[in-house]
Structure to design on (856 residues):
């Protein structure tokens, strides 16, 4: 009885977009799936837009055609392994999944035909393929006059800075800072989002803000229009203010990201998948070219998860899925798989300009054309653990996560049950 | 540099916890999950109180904390941290230091002793129960002790689980130890029932025993006391250590072969044995505790694991009802997911609604305290609203103090998830409820 060993059809490591999408797709295909993760993933930190391809290297207007060009030019890029058709399928699947989730009426809009340019907290314009409806009205081409609204309680959101930079981009923008009655001096967007869920509080907020607004200007707010029913909150706030309103992504915590996590988590649960948070992978066993089991930390003892398929979606350097240790050695922390994209001995590892492409940036777990890890034929790799991309420069992080998670599930499900392979 | 700690092991463990701080990237994921800081400004949140304040905490210097006393110790921050920072455990150390410096109120010395309370209340149950629900007494209790007048008070059953079990075991013995249709040789299992089952809800223990026996286990119940969790969570570490080690020793004596495991139905108490006592009370090196911790299972964790291997009986009759399930924070701290959800889904006809709010607010004894009762009710508000919206007539939850709080907040009955399995197995006619 003592040695705890749990059996599944597939075990997914990581609970960001890539992991949750892979697990949900697998569970939907009838597989018994467990997601194991050390903690909550990147959703809570990212804007929750689905950025497929924003820069290549110039700003991309039409991500679909640009994706084809990227695939042709860069056969080592994750998109080249996944293929443009599957990227499109994954996006459609996601856009259909959102409205069936726990947030009534909440939808994502957009397509691969054209990128939407949405204001960031700094007032730059960021290209995204799919965006939540709460951000859609921020699309730059439709934005003539705008008032960016902040509050002193949100110390990381500076409406005047955002407005000044939008003005430089040719948008007639000004800012308002509204004192909110909150019981503490500073509060993050999550705290205020919970207030927005309360209709009475919203009414008061809109009444106070109305007095400061001018005719014909849209309102840009930090992303905090509620957690439970953002569709209704947006409609209500627009109705009360009598104008178009949109959310601007903020520094963490990301309210739209928490919504996205809830949508994916609930889809996984609805499909019967198991989600185990707090379960760091601490070791694994091998049988030749296959991973036989992974052990996760649990209270009192480690648990072994055994499955014919594993999906590694533990992220890159930022999440600690891949680490560079103090001896200059680089590892995939969960499974110790071989990496690709490392600068050769003696070559530069870093360049002095922080936001330039860093030589280490394309490091990831080495994979074949089906996203199988090199040296581990039953491990599929998805998300930021893949080599060959520089998501923060390309504006491609969520697109890669979504499409590779989708693709990994397709490969595994096809092998688990060829007749029931997912469409 | 660190100054002298209470003992060598303390220093080692405290430094291990402290070392995890270096991994904090200030991502705020813990803040999004903290039940307490999301409803009150009195607790600034796990990131502020933990990784950010820790640099001001110096051994031998006075405690810099006051707000850390408002941390309820639920542990969710450590679970969601993607970088492995031991936030809750660090804050527990800080709370202990604060309490040592400020002194422990008499209240904390009383309400953290469920065994004493149980022994006093059981023979006098009708009077004790009346008194605990008698408003003038509760007002007096609030004024004198600081136990909030409206806080949920458990009801003494007036009988003890262990007494029932002795009788039950004797009957089983008389029947030749008949274990219903199990494998040829019954597997032995040691049952840790905890104080809640012993004094307040003995029927839950009876159900555990009957379910285990139905699945072919031979159940052994050692003489046992409290696990020390209430003491630990109120910062009374020295007392907590004594209590948990005594329990570990008592349980270990009954684990006579390597296949035998220990199972409990009080999920926060099994977590105390598995992990919290080792990490928070700096008892990593204690051989009895380590031995017990590696072999302890929460009842739902065990039953689901049996099911995963095809060893759980599934002769369930349908229960055509809806149930709202809430996974307590401390259940989630086992890091095994939410086994009760999958177990309940095995019962035909049963419609299971997963509650997705953070916490019920009680956090053991936190919500009993007069200065924290309102916070605890605000924390629980989301859950109470979700339960109401679910339309379920009853709530399932793995922890007894959480159940008392949920019933207090929702006015609905609440039971351990195994109640549904027990009913679906058709065991209820045995008169255990």
């Amino acid at each position: 009885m003592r040695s705890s060993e749990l059996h599944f059809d597939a075990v997914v490591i990581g609970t960001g977009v890539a992991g949750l999408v892979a697990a949900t797709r697998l569970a939907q295909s009838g597989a018994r799936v467990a997601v194991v993760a050390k903690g909550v993933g990147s959703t809570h930190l990212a804007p929750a837009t689905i950025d497929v391809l924003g820069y290549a290297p110039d700003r991309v207007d039409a991500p679909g055609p640009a994706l084809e060009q990227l695939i042709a030019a860069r056969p080592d890029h994750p998109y080249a392994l996944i293929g443009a058709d599957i990227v499109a399928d994954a996006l459609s699947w996601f856009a259909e999944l959102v409205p069936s989730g726990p947030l009534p009426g909440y939808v994502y809009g957009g397509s691969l035909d054209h990128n939407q340019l949405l204001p960031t907290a700094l007032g730059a314009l960021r290209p995204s393929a799919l965006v939540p409806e709460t951000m859609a009205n921020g699309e730059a081409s439709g934005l003539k006059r705008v008032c960016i609204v902040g509050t002193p309680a949100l110390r990381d959101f500076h409406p005047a800075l955002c407005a000044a930079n939008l003005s430089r981009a040719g948008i007639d923008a000004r800012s308002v800072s509204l004192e909110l009655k909150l019981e503490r001096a500073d509060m993050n967007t999550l705290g205020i989002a919970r207030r927005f869920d309360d209709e009475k509080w919203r009414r008061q907020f809109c009444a106070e803000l109305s007095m400061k607004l001018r005719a014909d200007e849209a309102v840009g707010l930090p992303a905090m229009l509620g957690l439970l029913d953002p569709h209704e909150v947006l409609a209500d706030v627009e109705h009360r203010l009598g104008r178009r309103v949109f959310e601007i992504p903020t520094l963490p915590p990301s309210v739209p990201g928490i919504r996205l996590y809830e949508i994916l988590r609930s889809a996984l649960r609805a499909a019967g998948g198991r989600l185990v948070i707090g379960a760091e992978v601490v070791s694994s066993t091998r049988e030749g070219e296959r991973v036989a089991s992974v052990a996760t930390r649990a209270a009192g003892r480690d648990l072994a998860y055994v499955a014919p398929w594993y999906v590694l979606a533990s992220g890159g350097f930022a999440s600690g899925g891949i680490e560079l240790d103090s001896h200059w050695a680089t590892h995939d922390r969960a499974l110790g798989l071989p990496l690709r994209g490392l600068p050769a001995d003696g070559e530069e590892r870093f360049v002095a300009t922080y936001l330039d492409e860093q030589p280490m940036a394309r490091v990831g777990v080495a994979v074949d054309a089906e996203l199988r890890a090199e040296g581990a034929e039953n491990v599929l790799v998805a998300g930021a653990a893949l080599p060959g991309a520089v998501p923060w420069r390309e504006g491609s992080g969520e697109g890669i996560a979504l499409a590779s998670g989708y693709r990994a599930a397709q490969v595994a499900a096809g092998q688990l049950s060829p007749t029931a392979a997912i469409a | 540099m660190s100054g002298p700690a209470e003992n060598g092991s303390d220093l080692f463990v405290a430094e291990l916890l402290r070392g995890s701080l270096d991994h904090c990237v200030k991502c705020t994921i813990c803040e999004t999950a903290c039940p307490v800081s999301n409803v009150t400004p009195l607790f600034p949140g796990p990131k502020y109180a933990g990784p950010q304040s820790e640099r001001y905490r110096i051994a031998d210097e006075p405690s810099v904390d006051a707000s850390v006393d408002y941390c309820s110790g639920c542990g969710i921050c450590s679970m969601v941290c993607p970088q492995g920072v031991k936030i809750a455990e660090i804050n527990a150390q800080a709370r202990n230091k604060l309490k040592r410096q400020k002194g422990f109120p008499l209240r904390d010395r009383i309400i953290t002793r469920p065994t004493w309370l149980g022994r006093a209340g059981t023979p006098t149950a009708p009077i004790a129960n009346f008194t605990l629900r008698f408003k003038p007494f509760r007002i007096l209790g609030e004024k004198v002790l600081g136990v909030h007048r409206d806080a949920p008070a458990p009801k003494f059953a007036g009988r003890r689980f262990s007494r029932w079990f002795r009788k039950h075991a004797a009957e089983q013995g008389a029947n030749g130890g008949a274990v219903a249709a199990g494998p040829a040789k019954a597997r032995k299992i040691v049952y840790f029932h905890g104080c809640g089952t012993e004094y307040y809800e003995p029927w839950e223990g009876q159900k555990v025993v009957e379910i285990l026996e139905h699945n072919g286990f031979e159940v052994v119940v050692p003489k046992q006391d409290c696990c020390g969790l209430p003491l630990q969570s109120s910062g009374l570490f020295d007392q907590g250590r004594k209590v948990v080690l005594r329990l570990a020793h008592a349980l270990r004596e009954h684990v006579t072969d390597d296949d035998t495991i220990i199972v409990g139905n009080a999920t926060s108490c099994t977590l105390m044995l598995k992990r919290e006592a080792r990490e928070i009370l700096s008892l990593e090196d204690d051989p009895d505790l380590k031995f017990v911790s590696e072999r302890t299972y929460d009842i739902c964790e065990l039953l689901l694991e049996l099911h995963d291997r095809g060893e759980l009986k599934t002769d369930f009759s349908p229960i055509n009802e809806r149930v709202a399930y809430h996974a307590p924070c401390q259940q989630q701290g086992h890091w095994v997911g939410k086994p009760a959800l999958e177990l309940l889904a095995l019962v035909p006809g049963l419609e299971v609604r997963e509650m997705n709010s953070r916490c019920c607010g009680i956090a053991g004894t936190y919500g009993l305290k007069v200065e924290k009762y309102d916070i605890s009710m605000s924390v629980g508000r989301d859950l109470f609203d979700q339960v109401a919206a679910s339309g379920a007539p009853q709530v399932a939850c793995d922890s007894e103090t959480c159940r008392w709080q949920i019933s207090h907040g929702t006015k609905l009955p609440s039971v351990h998830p195994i109640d549904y399995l027990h009913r679906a197995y058709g065991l209820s006619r045995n008169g255990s409820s």
Q: What stands out?
A: The radius of gyration of chain B is 21 Å. Chain B has 22 helices and eight strands. The longest strand of chain B covers residues 187-192. The interface with chain A takes residues 23, 27-29, 31-33, 38, 41, 78-84, 187, 258-261, 271, 273-275, 293-296, 305, 308-309, 332-338, 341-342, 354, 356 of chain B (CB under 8 Å).
